Every structure is written in C-alpha cells, then in structure tokens.
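Page header: ASSEMBLY MODEL / two components / 1218 residues total.
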Amino acid sequence: MMKETFFPDDPLRDFKDQSRSRMFILGLQSIFPIFQWGRDYNLTKFRGDFIAGLTIASLCIPQDIGYSKLANLSPQYGLYSSLVPPLIYAFMGSSRDIAIGPVAVVSLLLGSMLQDEIDPIENAADYRRLAFTATFFAGITQAALGFLRLGFLIDFLSHAAIVGFMGGAAITIALQQLKGFLGIKNFTKNSDIVSVMHSVWVSVHHGWNWQTILIGASFLVFLLFSKYIGKKNKKFFWVPAIAPLISVVLSTFFVYITRADKEGVQIVKHIKKGINPSSVNEIFFTGKYLGIGIKIGVVSGVIALTEAIAIGRTFASMKDYQLDGNREMVALGLMNVVGSMTSCYVATGSFSRSAVNFMAGCQTAVSNIVMSCVVLLTLELITPLFKYTPNAILASIIISAVIGLIDIEAALLIWKIDKFDFVACMGAFIGVVFASVEMGLLIAVSISFAKILLQVTRPRTVILGNIPRTTVYRNVQQYPKATKVPGTLIVRVDSAIYFSNSNYVKERILRRLMDEEEELKANYLPRIQFLLIEMSPVTDIDTSGIHALEELYRSLQKRGVQLVIANPGPVVMDKLHASKFTDLISDNYIFLTVADAVMTCAPKMLEEA
Amino acid sequence: MMKETFFPDDPLRDFKDQSRSRMFILGLQSIFPIFQWGRDYNLTKFRGDFIAGLTIASLCIPQDIGYSKLANLSPQYGLYSSLVPPLIYAFMGSSRDIAIGPVAVVSLLLGSMLQDEIDPIENAADYRRLAFTATFFAGITQAALGFLRLGFLIDFLSHAAIVGFMGGAAITIALQQLKGFLGIKNFTKNSDIVSVMHSVWVSVHHGWNWQTILIGASFLVFLLFSKYIGKKNKKFFWVPAIAPLISVVLSTFFVYITRADKEGVQIVKHIKKGINPSSVNEIFFTGKYLGIGIKIGVVSGVIALTEAIAIGRTFASMKDYQLDGNREMVALGLMNVVGSMTSCYVATGSFSRSAVNFMAGCQTAVSNIVMSCVVLLTLELITPLFKYTPNAILASIIISAVIGLIDIEAALLIWKIDKFDFVACMGAFIGVVFASVEMGLLIAVSISFAKILLQVTRPRTVILGNIPRTTVYRNVQQYPKATKVPGTLIVRVDSAIYFSNSNYVKERILRRLMDEEEELKANYLPRIQFLLIEMSPVTDIDTSGIHALEELYRSLQKRGVQLVIANPGPVVMDKLHASKFTDLISDNYIFLTVADAVMTCAPKMLEEA
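Prediction written out in full:
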C-alpha cells in the first residue's frame, strides 16, 4: 500500500541482486543519464544534434536578450542562462528533446514579483542579487520536490488552468512589448491591460516614435510570415527558427547605417562581453531578502517545473520513451542551483525552442550542448555587435514567440468537454490579463483545488436496478431497462468512504431513501424494507466512514429498514470486522454480490407481507 | 450535476408551488426553527426541558468561571457567554440536545492565540477588545460558511485528527490547572508539557501551598468519584452534574469560615455583578488588531464549529432527526456575532454538558433558555458569594471535566483500523502536548490534507480476470479463482480521471503492462496484444484525463498493443466523443462490457497467431 502510493514506479527495481560495482555504475547512470545513453552515441546521432543545436541557438540568442528585459535584467543575463543550465541539464536530464534556457512566462513572473520588492533601476545591484537568490531557491524547491518524490504536487495545476494562465501571460507579455514597439519612454510598471492601455493612450501624441514603429512593424510582419511558412510546410521548420536572428542582423545593420538611434529609435546600447561571472557571493543567505527570495523562488520554481515537465512528457510520449518525473525535477533543480551561482536566472524548458529542436531532428541532449557552445562563442566574440540592435526588433521577436502560447483551440475543446474546467481556464486568463500574473496564478491554483475538494467531498451515489432476466445490477439512469427491486433500494457508492465525504455519503443515502419512500407512497406501492449498499467501488474506509455507516444503520433501524452490505472489498471487510461493525449489522446481512443479497432478502419480504 | 454538488439536500424543496404567505411562514420557520417546533410544545416537554436546564446550569456556572480563566478573561465573561448565546441559539438552532456556552478547548485556543498578540495582564482592556473582535469574526466565519453552503469544509478535519487534538488539548488544559491546583504563583505562559513541568519543578520548594493542594485534591477525588457513580448507573447521571456546584459551595463556605485565603489559598476575589454590558464599541473594526482579530476568529470559529456540529450530529442520529449542517452553522455564527456585541467570547456546543442535557431528558432547545435564566439570576444575585471560592476548586472541576475528552478507546480503534489515521491522531496529540495548541491544530489539518491529496492523486488500478464459466470479471488479487485472459491485459481504474491523477493513471497502466510482459516473456507465453480498460468506476474525466488516454493510446500503438475501452459511463462517453478520442481509437474498440470486448478481441488474436 505504502509502496503503491509513493513508489509506484519501483525506482530501485534495477538495483536488486546486483554486485556492488554494478550498483555503483547503475547509481551513477541514474544520476547522470548521459553515461547510459552516451555509450550508444554515434556520428549519425551527432549530425542530428548538431543541426538542431545550431537552429535552437539562432532562435535563443535574440529571445534571451528580449526575455531578460521581461525579468528587468541586463541582456547578458539571458545569454548566461542559455550557457550554463543547458550544459548541466545535458548531463543530468533524461528528456531528449527539451531545449533549456530562459522562457517568456517565467521571466515575466520573476520580473513582476521581484520589482514589487526592489526597484530594478534605482537599486539594480540588490535587484540582481535577489534574482539570483530566487533562482537558487527555485532550484532547491525543484530538486527537493523530485528528491522527496513529491513530483505529483505539480499535477495539482490543472491543464485547463495552465491553458488560461499561459494565454493570459502571452497577452500580458505582448502588451508589455508595446513599450519597445511604439518607442514609449514613460511606461507603466503594472502589467494589467488597463494600466498598459492607459500608458499607450497618454503617450499617443508625443511619446510614439514613427521610425521605431516602422522597424518593429515591418519585421513583425516578416516574422509572422515566416511562422506561417513553417506551419504550412513542416519541411521549412527552419524558416521561423532563423528568422529572428536574420531580423536582428538586418535591423542592427540598418540602424548602424542610418544612425536611426539619433532619431529616437531606442537600441540595446551595451551587452557585456565575456562568459558568466561567478555570483556565489551575491545570493542573499541572510537578511530580510532571504525570506522574500525563498517565496519568489518557490513560486517561480514550481511554474518553471510545470512547464518543463509538460514539455518533457509531451515529447517523451511522441517518441515513446519513459520520463521519470521525479528524477527530471532533481536535474532541473540542480541545474538552477548551479545557474544561480553563475549569474543565471531561472531557466527551464521552452515550448517554442523544444518544438524547433524536435523538428530539426535532435536525437539527445547533445543539441543543448551545441547550443550552449554557440552561446559561449556569441558572448566571447560578437556581443559588441548587438550594440545597435533596436529594442523594437526584440519586441517583435517576443510578440511573435508568445503568440504560440495562446491556444484558442484548446480553450474551445475545454469548453466542449467540461464547463467547470472552462471556468478555471477563463479565471486564470482574466486574472493575468486584468490584474497581475500572481493573481492569475492564485486564481488558477484556487480553482484547481476547489475542483479537487469537490471531487473528494461529493462522491457519486447511484441507484441500481436489475437488468431483466440476468443477475446484473446497473445504474437505473444509465440503463433505462434496469428495474428497481420492489421493497429494496440498492445504492452504489462510487468512492472510498473517508472523513472528507462520510457525512455526505450518509446523508445522501438517507435522502435517496426518503425520496424513494415519498414516490412509493404516492403510487401506493409497498414500502422499502431493505437498503442495500453495493460496496465494490469503495476501495477503502476509515474510522469516520465506519462511524457514518453505524449512524446510517441506527437511523435505518428507527425507520424499520434493514441495512444490507454487498460485495465489500477485502480491505474494507477487514476494517468492518476490526471495528465490530459486522457484529452490529450481523454477518447475515453482508453478501458477496448484489444478486445474492436480493435473493436472500426477497423471501423475508414475502414473510412480512 | 451542479445541484447534486452544492444542493444535495434540495433546501428549497418545501417552497415549491406554495402561496406567498405560506412561503413567508416557511422562510421564517427555516430561519427560526422555534416557530416550527414551538407549535407542538407542551407542558410534558417543558418538564423535561426544565429539569435538564437546571442540571446543565448547575454544571455550567462553575465550568464557565474556570474556562474564562483559560481564555485569560475575568470570570464574569464566562457567565456572560452562557447567558446570551444559548438564548439566540434556542430561537435559531435546530439541535434539540446541544448545550451552548464556553468550552474548554476553544477557551484554551483563544487564550493561547490572544496572548501571543497582547499581554492579558498588562494590557487587559485591549486584550478583551481583541477577544470580542475575534468572537465577532468567528461568528461571521461560521455564518458565512453556512450561508455559502461551504459547510462541508469542516469535514476536512478527520475524525482521527480530532481525537488526537482533543486528547492533547485535554492534557494541556489539565496541566495548566496545576497552577491553581498547587497554588503556584510564577507559572509559565507556554502550554507545552516541558515548560509546565519545569515551572512545577522549579516551584516545588517554595511555590506550592499545602492548604490549596488539600482542598483541590479532596474535591478532585469527590468529583471523580461522582463521575464514577454516574458512569456505573445511568440513573445517577445528576450526581456528576451537580457535584461541581456542591464542591464550589462547600469549598467557598470552608474558605470563608477558616479564612484560608490569608494562608495563601488563592481565591476568585471578585466577579462583577450584573448582566452583560454592551461591547459593540469595543470591537476593533480598524487598526492593526483588525487583521489579527480576523485570523484568530477564523481559526477559533472553525474549531468551535467542528465541535458543535459533531455534537449536533451525534445526538441527532441517536434520536433520529435530521440536522441541516449549513443552517446550523448560520445559527451558531449569528449567535456568536450577537455574543461579541454583548461581552461574550466564542461559545459553542459543550460535549460534557450536552451529554448531561441529553441524559436529563431535554426535549427541545428550551433547556438552553432555562439554563440562560439561571445564569441571569446568578449574575444578578449571587456572584458576590463566589468571592471566597478557591481557585483550586475551579482547577479540580476543569480537570475532572476535560478527562472525558481523552478517548483512549477511540485511539485504539483507530490503530486497529487504519495506521495512517493513527499517525494523524498521534501527530495532533503530540503537537498539542509538546508544542502548542496551534501547532497541534496545524499538524492535524496538514495530515488530514495530505491524506486527501494522496487519495486524489493515487487512485487504485487493479487487474481483472475471468471467473471460470461466467462472464464476470473480477480483481485477480481479491478472487484467486479469476484467471487472466491470454494475450489481453484487463485493467480497472477505480476513480474519476482528473488532472490530479491522469499522469499517475497513465504511467501506472503502462507499468502494469511492462510487468506483465516481463512475466509472460519469462514463461514463454504469448505476448499482450490488447490492453482493456474497464471504465465503469470512472465517473468523470476532464481534458487532462483525455490527454492521458491519448498519450497512452500512442504509447501502446508504438508497442503494437491495441487499447480497448469497456463500459464507459454516459458522461465519460460524451466527453470522449466531444474530444474526438473515439475517432482516434475507433468505435470498434469501445464496448459495453468486458465480456463483449474479450469476445471480439479473442478471434483477432487467433488470426494473428
């Protein structure tokens, strides 16, 4: 039972009956899967990984520079985060298709939570330190969840809530880009649609810069068109993948030639050259920012994890390999811990880059290593060239990237399948767009939890009837042919009976009996003498559940109705015995099947009649 | 579906098709049940209520004075809380047996949380104001839970956790009484057993007062003996009920005669005469204490509610009448709101006094009105007489009262039935005794929640086999006769498939398939060609669940195994259709019963073989 609950995947199965040295190698391989798949690695695989790595590198460089702005950090920190974390992941992770690095939603969330605490412009040094602190604890959180086998906790964010949250975040991110896209100087710090639109409106007469808009708009059209081509024909997947880099090169060249920056076109200005400096001493391990860092780290770590695991699972099921969620979390966590010490902020799996990685034919995590090398060369050699890159182009790249996060089809499907899920989806969406990222997240989590609570506290109880000329008893609402047995009410409880639902189950059964009795009375039919509970779906019962049964038994006795139990499972039966409930109701009223019970009860009814 | 979830009791059923005036009367009766049962009230019933009322009054007066000390309030506030709230409850409540007033555990909890914020001696006025504020918001919380039909939330405290919490609270309360019982002057403010024992030990040489111990011990023996008599013979239930009052009268008289207070025997000294003054203006509606008051109010309100509802349900099931939990919560809530405005602190149903009330033959809530009148007379006339009552006697009364909360039998039963429940029980117990009341409560709530989460995320999956010579398929672990069908793995999922468990279900099924394949390979048996999921216990599915099924289908296809669905319910079937999952798997692989599915799959296996 314990094993089934916490170790359903039996993680130590391979270690059984092995020699010491073999166990050491297995242990090493389980921490560093690269030692496992690395032995079968060959040139053919490397060819795929190399091409995929180059493709995602060309996509990630402009994205990284843009995303670091969402996190209110200087552009180089985005590139740093695409250098170290992918390397660590390549050694420890088990997904073959995920592309690691900074992502839009986590950057926005982190930036938005951090700037509530420290002003990123006035106090840039402390802001950066808090960002590393949050990254460190995000990593610790992720690794701890995996290590303690609590990975299932991230399943508590429902798919519907994630769809809404992602869509809302995408719109929020796109709106934020209006600042760079329109060249507005005084822009609101709030991320809700009302504040942003107000900023845009106020600045309409003097704040907009037409040169900026021209550059941004023309390249946005180019980027969206390249996306369209990639979507139309899968063979051209590389077109949208390299379009951003082309845009950056072209626009930078254009600005350099025309010196448009003197006309008010804002440019990146400066990216620090060189690879990641150490940031071990910058993490707050004491003081008032420690608690804040932990809080922000936990939230952003969990969201990053949710995204990475979802991506990992999607591609694992497409290529049909197993992904161990808990082990994956440890890998992602350690990657961020190391990242936080090497000037990176929270990195995770990127939806868009992983898809490109997959389509470009990646074979293993080596594509991440290739990407990492390209980023390294970029940092060492060509960062100065980004000086004249206009901010508008980064805005266009981000807009065209996040549009893919708005999944209208999924939302429509949710509407069709489950209205309650749709409420969760829209709640998260509206929360993000009209209030803040944190509020949307809170709404998403709350609605997800409410659904779980309702599921637990309100199990289904159905009335069974006999399918004529058989000994089969089925739900009368589902099988119109099923007929109720006269004088007997057969109720099936479709859940374990625990403290969380025992009172509901008891009251629901009594209410069903009362409804039935009213109906029978109205039709002058014989009254109910036996209430039969079909227990086969009741997988377990606890003390509260047994109390509820006892109370039910007593209430029924007072009404002259006999409680009968059919088909209790072995676990439930043991507990009914241990609690002496079987003595109370007497073994004569516990049966193996509903048919047995009905057969025994029917003659007794005749006697009384 | 919505109705089934939120209105399973169909609260408006009586209002259907009624005239306006009738609806008004019904509405009035549903808010004030006294107008309903009051019409059948007669002298015989009053006789029962009168005797019961006098009995519980004699029990409550000494208890109230003692309990107010637990809440760090002057003695009259305990009496006030036995005057107004029972009156309000008598008009609005629907339990016939509950006795309303201050109770030990809530007094301790309130006192312990309040003194963390304000010192009750140095700043008595603000402390009292915060107590009323907390009471006000306790009432608001209770009424809101009832009004919003969220009453089921209190079911989240499991029975086991409550048993442990109550036992721990009883021991903590008893230990606190050592101060009065031993006449110690410098006593710790902490409630954990280590601090208390340290206080007792430090004061052993100069702090103990032998006269106090003599009075306390002799009356404690008397009280426990009277309890023993009442337990031996139910006819003498009144002996333990009036023993406390007799003890108070005798000991007060004794101290007055001997002037033992001059020998260091601590006495009550002063109880304010007169009935409840208004405290409307004392409640903090603004300022820093508002938030604290709300927090303490919510916690103590929920605990008070849990106790009252548990009592109400117990006696309702003993006398077989229905108790509407949500309506009851509104009544208890409004009672505390009014109480907070009339100098009362949180009142609720008392276990010990309700039992006495029941045994003394109460018929309706009129016994509470009788009790209330006796308390009124006490406050108006005889409070000055309590001046010489020794504190030791109050300590003895409280000790003998709370001993009944330690339910060793229940704990043993929990151990026998469910080991996990026992952990919850002991966790709460140890938390209260060794740390603090709040810590015990936190442990109780956390463990209860953990159990729910595990229940939701880890549904059972079982392998089914055919019972020879029938078309019945049962769990092979439960029915050793059931034999697996060659080439087919039949798995039953015993829960709705939601986002919270969809990944687990998918991975568990795949794992079961892999285990099975390994076993078959080892025995040179034909491989699995069909994986059949028996869906009858799957009451519902959401988008995440359908995604998991799709992923499962794809993984199985890659392994050359066909997914087959048997007996999906109508709700599930609709959703499988809406999501086009039925197109993916094809309708040919969805069957009404497992037997149908096996019959169709068997020939196909022969073809291939």
